[in-house]
Write a structure and sequence with these properties.
There is one protein chain. The protein has 155 residues and is of the alpha/beta class. It has a single domain (4-14, 30-154), classed as 60s Ribosomal Protein L30, Chain: A, CATH 3.30.1330. It contains 3 helices and 9 strands, in the order H-E-E-E-E-E-E-H-E-H-E-E. The protein has helices spanning 4-11, 61-82, 109-124; strands at 29-32, 35-41, 44-45, 48-49, 54-55, 58-59, 90-101, 131-137, 146-154. The strands form 3 sheets. It has a 5-stranded mixed beta sheet with strand order 1-2-9-7-8. Strand 1 (29-32) and strand 2 form a beta hairpin. The radius of gyration is 15 Å and the shape is globular. The model has no long low-confidence stretch (mean pLDDT 96).
Length: 155
């Protein structure tokens, strides 16, 4: 039987992918106490980077937002694995960190990161409101346009 979070994802038309395997010397998530800390997720879709390049230089702000949203979907896949398949264990999205590949003159990082933040609230309601850091970087692994990491409280 699907829980309330799985039902909400279905309402939003979201199917979680298999969690991506690490590509270097790290683990995809770490559980400590009642926190799940998830390593940065890039906008992978069907095993390929769906949004590559730099936001503001070939990648539009709207596509950047879509990339951030997809990163959050991939975060949820990792959280689901960390919670033994039960996303209803998530009691709060504590923090998201966003990395936006962009040229030095780009200044709309926060708008791009709203793609992830807005989805967190769509999925978890008030419990999806979180602290956040968003920074611009010159490049990301695989030429991904966005990467998002997260911390979740679980019960």
């Amino acid at each position: 039987m699907a829980g309330r979070i799985e039902a909400r994802l279905k309402e939003l038309g979201i199917t979680l992918p298999q969690p991506a395997a690490p590509v270097a010397n790290y683990i995809p998530f770490n559980v400590t106490g009642n926190l799940v800390v998830v390593s940065g997720q890039i906008p992978l879709q069907e095993g390929k980077i769906a949004y590559a390049g730099k936001v503001g230089a070939g990648v539009s702000v709207e596509d950047g937002k879509a990339a951030a949203r997809l990163c959050f979907v991939n975060l949820l896949a990792q959280v689901k694995a960390a919670c033994g398949g039960d996303l209803d264990r998530v009691t709060r999205v504590v923090r998201l960190g966003g990395f936006i590949a962009a040229p030095a003159e780009f200044t709309q990082h926060a708008v791009v990161m709203n793609g992830a933040s807005d989805l967190a609230v769509e999925v978890f309601g008030e419990a999806g409101r979180h602290a956040r850091t968003t920074i611009g970087v010159p490049s990301l692994p695989g030429d991904a346009a966005v990467e998002v990491e997260g911390m979740f409280e679980v019960g």
